[in-house]
Amino acid sequence: MIRFAWLVPALPLVAFFLIVFFGKRTPGKGAPIGIAAVFAAFVLSLLVLSHVAGGGEPVERSLPFFQAGRLELEVGTRVDGLAAVMMVVVTLVSLAVQVYSVGYMHGDRRYTWYFAALSLFTGSMLNLVVASNLFQLLVGWELVGICSYLLIGHWWEEKENSNAAIKAFITTKTGDVPFLFGIFVLWLAAGTANIGEITELVEHGEIAAGTLTVAALLLFGGAIGKSAQFPLHVWLPDAMAGPTPVSALIHAATMVAAGVYLAARLFAVFAASATALSFVGAIGVVTMLIAAVLALVQDDIKRVLAYSTVSQLAYMMAGLGLGEPGFTPSQFHLFTHAWFKALLFLAAGSVIHAVHTNDMRAMGGLRRQMPVTFWTFLVGSAALAGIFPLAGFWSKDEIIAAAWHSGHDLIFVGALATAALTALYMTRAVLLTFFGEYRGEAHPHESPRVMTWPLLLLAALSVGAGFLNASAFGVHTFAEWVHVGPEAHVEPFSWALAAVSLLAAGAGVAAGVALYGRYRERDPLRAAGPLYTFVERKYFLDDLYLKGIVRPTAYTVAAAVNWTNQYILDGLVNAAGWVARRVARLVDRLDRRVVDGAVNGVAFTTNVSGGLLRYIQTGNVQRYAVFLFVGVAVLAILITRVA
Amino acid sequence: MSGWEKSAVTLAVFLPAAGALAVALVPRHLDRLIRALGILSSGAALAVGVAILFGFDYGAGRELQFELNTRWIDAINARYHVGLDGISLPLFELTLLLSFLCLVYTWRFLPEPGRPKAFVALTLLLETGMAGTFVAFDLILFFIFWELVLVPMYFLIGIWGSANREYAAIKFFLYTLFGSVFMLLAFLGMFFKGPTPHTFDLLALQEFGAAGGFSRDLQMLLFAGVFLGFAIKVPMWPFHTWLPDAHTEAPTIGSVLLAGILLKMGTYGFVRIALPVLPDAARAWAPAIGVLAVIAIVYAALACLAQRDLKRLIAFSSVGHMGFVMLGIATLSDIGINAAIFGMVAHGIITGMLFFEVGSIYDRYHTRMIADIGGGMLQKIPWLAGLFAYTAIASLGLPGLAGFWGEVMALLSAYNPSGAVSEWTTLFRTLMVFGGIGTILTAGYFLWMLQRVNLGTVPDRWRDVPIPDVTRVELVAWAPLLVGILLLGVFPRAVLGVTNEAVEALVRVFGG
Amino acid sequence: MIAEATIRLPFVLFFSAVLFAAGVYGVLARRNAVLVLMSIELMLNAVNLNLVAFAARLGDLAGQVFALFVITVAAAEVGIGLAIVILIYRNRETINVDEVNLLKW
Predict the structure, then answer these.
(1) B127 and B99 in contact (C-beta within 8 Å)?
(2) B307 to chain A: nearest residue by CA?
(3) Can you give the pLDDT at residue C2?
(4) Nearest Cα to B340, choosing from B391, B272, B291?
(5) Would the CA dihedral through B399, B400, B406, B408 be positive or negative?
């Protein structure tokens, strides 16, 4: 079956071309093509997973791609448990989102193109997942970036949307450049870009530790950009300008998890460097806290979820930062998070679809009009908050336990604090959106079935996915699928730790109910004063980037360069031309006045003397005769004198 | 060797010139016939080119194939020596293809003031010059083709250009000529200081140079000469200022050929002549070239951010992309030079396409100012705007499209330059970092440009103006390029498979 | 003897000089073309006188032969001169030499 793993990314890519060229003319305007392709890919992914589920060596199949001197690249698939799980996640979320979009995007101006872009995204993401080669991975990595750009800017008539799209692309590209250099470092050190061969070389200790540290840190730059980690997290909240299903697929479940996936895929490289692991962990802790705090002060429901995503991705990063014990938990969290975060976004989309606004201040009381949406959102929130026995509980608990057992106190404390904050902001979101009285102008109604079915599917997964690795009950299925080293790493379950983390979540929920149980015009947190402003302005990071880097570059520096070009470099060229022309004019003058002047002077002299002499010529013969006689007389006198 | 193999290259090079002659004999009022003759003769050349593609032995890319070496000017021992190897083949084919497409485009679009006869004849003459440059293996022959290109391009810009055309044409001509003079001096230096009997034959000179025949001091001097000639043509920073003017003022197909092929003559010159004949000097000059290349990358990207004229923006982007090509060359490594040739072909296709599109936009809007177009093109003319976005995104180096591999491999080669310049590795890695920053800036200005031109709503002034979308002739002329952009992206072996052998043979002089 | 009674040379020369001066005056000052011609005749005859006088004095016939030539040439000259004068008169209705000045500048 694994022979056909390449079909998984290929099917959506083919669907992309089919939709672009024929979508508009087919019934369903292209959506069925995309859905069919991703469904087939999903089925294939399940088959692939069933093959590798038993563990064992990753299966790799590659073809030579090209050779340029020492650079020999191949293209192929490298499937292990991690990749197979990720394939299932991507295809299933994509399937749910595409079905959901049929309802959500109904009547959209660029309906067909939307589905084409979703297919392109899915294919590129899957290519990233299965890539056997770092350069191939890079191709998928950048392609998902451009898809993200295209879909964030889907409604490009509005300037804010295209601004958000550009911001997303440029910010992640800023991370991609170090990522690229990280690939270079690995390639040179290992002499190959093949992920399997690199992993093997690293595990045999054949690459210097210093090199690996550099490579890991550079690669992590890409992960910081793609997974929206501090300090490059700023693009993700703005990316909510895109259609909500896109946010669910790209900016919650799959693409933003690519950074985490990358670190896991090349875990050997990271694990070989303590510095890199500490760095990953530190970034994780910082990001999870600052993002969770940011999520507290958002009024836009999607931005709450966006910051929550940043925070949860940081959770996974922190998990990876724990080293080997954190590997399976972090990937498990990636797995469960995909379901409930996609669910939350789709449910939020359902709300937005009904009330035509993102602003939670204009919502409230929707649980009556939108029961399905409400219940699924609640399930998602609870899962996210880590309430027993939903999916989030199990995965989050594993990370916390791993942090505790491996003695990473900072990560442990940070994770607990984040758990509490997460519960708090999700409680706030649920209360503001679904409880109290409706404060908006629209006439909310439940969404059509094509939208609610995906919600129910994802809700079921949000409830049940956690049991794949419910160590409390001795279930370690996921750990057997996804692990480093020959044996699955099983974190011993500790009821005490679970109680602590539940306590943290419970505290968050309680605080949320206390603060937001009754709706207030003025957010109670505003009492924090300047601190609130500091958070509300996103720690002034956006201002720093925009006013400190982007605008000076795009306007001041660019204008200065252009000025230099026009007036200095081109000025030199033009000055050379000017000087040449001046010299030429001088030479010309010299030529006319002096050289030609001599020639003309001769003619002029002749002319003038002739003009003077002609006056003697009176025409009067007698006067000539006078001259004659005078002349003769003079001659006679002269001759006689001489004689 | 059969007669076909001996004559194919010559045939492809001179068919367009013959076409130009035929066009000159046709009475001026037979407009359609003239344009058809243009398409036919360049099409015939392209057909020969395709036949060459089939006859080429890809396993022996380092060998000179389709070679013809015969006596020409005995007095100075200049020979008519033409041929193709893995380095010149992609550029040669690109020349034939782009010229043909330009003439197809001319079937429908002829800039003011008309005069199809002169236009077509000059374009055909230009094609002969360009194609000849890439096949000449004799320095005098090379120089003649090189200079032959100048004259038709001068007239194309000077007659069919836009407002400031005369300034641009003269600047282009003089600037390039200025460089060529030094190049010619260097050629003469190679002739007189080279092997005995004195020869202009490139292969003989390469052999002589590789064996260390030229003293190091002489090499430095000769390299300075050819450097000026090639660097101005590329153009490298700071010799680039003729380019924005020439591109902006030139008619559409002038810009296409200028960006698509003329610039490559400079980089090709480096690869073909400067590096193999003067290896020691190349080694010494490489860091400087690398620095200039990276300055060009960052500088051009910043300048692009400041441009208000769409065509000028694209022109500046060429400077940056050629910076990547030169960076690859400067590393003197197999990857770098492969990257350079790939980058040349990719840039030829992509930027050629961009100039086609900008030309078509200008034809419709009668303005090239970004602010005057004012956005909303995706609403007004979705196909043209969509293709423009596709090409622009290819140009910013998206993987899966042509621009990617050249850029990435150039950066990769800077990370790991040839052993010949190993003492400069740190410098090259620093350059790589700045090149990487350049790619971010490149993405920035292209996306910003797309936002200002394509996105948003149609401004009031254009709302009721009928603006046609892509026409059939445009689509026919563009289709090969659009497909090529995708093809080179997903199947880079189409170029690298041809060049790699020859490049590996070339870099052997730098110790592999 | 009558042969003794010869006129002394200075007288002759003096007479001839006066005659020549009168001719010069006529040529330079008179306006009437006919009178100018006649004045030329006076000058020629003054020359003839000198030739004859010196021929007699030196006993050399060459002078007399010259005089004969001059008389002949003078006759022809007057003929042509008068013809020109007549033609001028026919064209210009004047024989005033001051007014015949086309041949200038």
Answers:
(1) yes
(2) A562
(3) 45
(4) B272
(5) positive
Residue B392's pLDDT is what? 94
The Cα–Cα gap between B396 and B400 comes to 12
Residues B424-462 as b or e (16 or more Cβ within 10 Å = b): bbebbbebbbbbbbbbbbbbbbbbbbbbbbbbbbbeeeb
Q: Does the CB of C88 have a partner CB in chain A at under 8 Å? A: no
In this complex, the residue of B393, B440, B454 whose CB is nearest that of residue A146 is: B393
Say what the pTM is.
0.85
**Euclidean distance between CA atoms B458 and A157, whole angstroms:** 9
Q: A325 near A403, Cβ under 8 Å?
A: no
Structure tokens at B180: 């060529």
Q: CB-based contact (8 Å) between A557 and chain B?
A: yes
Residues of chain A with pLDDT under 70: 1, 54-56, 489, 491
Which of A65, A69, A162 minimises the CB distance to B338? A69
Tell me the pLDDT band of C1, cut-offs 50, 70 and 90.
very low
- Chain-chain contact of A619 with C104 (C-beta, under 8 angstroms): yes
Classify residue B335 by burial, with Cβ atoms within 10 Å: 0-12, 13-18, 19+: buried
Kindly list the residues from chain A whose CB atom is less than 8 angstroms away from the CB atom of residue C104. Answer: 617-620
Q: Give me chain B's average pLDDT, please.
A: 91
Beta bridge partners of residue A67, listed in sequence order? A72
Asked if the Cβ–Cβ distance from B415 to A135 is below 8 Å, we say no
Per-residue pLDDT tens over the stretch B456-504:
888 888 888 888 888 888 999 999 999 999 999 999 999 998 999 899 9
Amino acid present at B299: Y
Mutate to test the interface with C, among A618, A620, A626 (most CBs of C within 10 A): A620
All chains having 3 or more CB pairs closer than 8 angstroms to chain C: A
Distance CA A229, CA A221 (A): 9
The beta-carbon neighbor of A70 closest among B335, B339, B393 is B335
Residue B47 pLDDT > 90: yes
Reply yes or no on whether the pLDDT at C82 is more than 60: yes
Asked if the model's pLDDT at residue B66 lies above 80, the reply is yes
Both tokens assigned to A461: 């997964």
d(CA A564, CA B504): 40
Min distance A613 CA to chain C CA atoms (Å)? 9
Q: Give the list of residues 6+ apart from residue A474 with CB closer than 8 angstroms, or none.
A: none
Measure CB to CB from residue C101 to each of A620, A626, A629 and give the nearest one: A620
Question: Exposed/middle/buried for A416, CB within 10 Å: 0-12, 13-18, 19+?
Answer: buried
CB atoms within 10 A of CB B16: 32
Report ipTM for this prediction.
0.91
Whole-number Å distance between alpha carbons of B337 and B319: 18
Asked if B244 and B308 count as a contact pair (C-beta separation under 8 A), the reply is no
For chain A, say whether C29 makes contact (Cβ under 8 Å): yes
Interface test with B, best of A71, A109, A166, A183 (most B CBs within 10 A): A71
d(CA B300, CA B239): 12
CA distances from B160 to A445, B26, B394, C32 (A): 63, 21, 29, 81
The pLDDT > 70 percentage for chain A reads 99
Q: How confident is the model at residue B288 (pLDDT cuts 50, 70, 90)?
A: very high
Chains B and C touch (3+ CB pairs under 8 A): no
CA separation for the pair A246, B246 (Å, rounded) = 44
HEC string for B279-303: HHHHHHHHHHHHHHHHHHHHHHHHH
Closest CA to A504 of A329, A390, A385: A385
Q: How many Cβ atoms from other residues are within 10 Å of residue A135's Cβ?
A: 24
The helix or strand, by DSSP H or E, that contains position A356, with its residue range, turns out to be none
When CB atoms are compared, the residue of A157, A165, A170 closest to B440 is A170
